[in-house]
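W.,

You were right to be curious about this one. When I first looked at the sequence I had no strong expectations either way, so I just let the prediction run and decided to look at it fresh. Below is the sequence, 116 residues in total, followed by the output.
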Amino acid sequence: MSYQGVLYHFIDVSKSMSARHKLETQLTENNIVKEELDLLNSENTVYKLIGPVLVKQDLDEAKATVSKRLDYINGEIQRYETLLKDMERKLESHREVLASLQQDYQRAQGRPVGKV
């Protein structure tokens, strides 16, 4: 893999970590919403913001929506964790190849080979 390829790989890792962080933030926000909805009873009124309008929503429907959203976010976090682990394995492989190439270069230059 070329230097540019490794650079793009680092950029991909950075973007994936950023996306995962955003999902973690959404997870926290949605957990707070779930906790607040759990404090309500059927006598309370729940509104959902749709564009500039607040629309009355059934409490059970709101709880179900938040629950589905939490399931989705958790699934996406798992997907990014798997993706990041795979990227880390690839980066480690590239590090090993790079270290080997550096040692070969040092040997070709007649310099003692040191640990990288």
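Here's what jumped out at me. The chain has a mean pLDDT of 89. And, maybe more interesting for your project: The longest strand covers residues 46-50.

Coffee later to discuss?

I.
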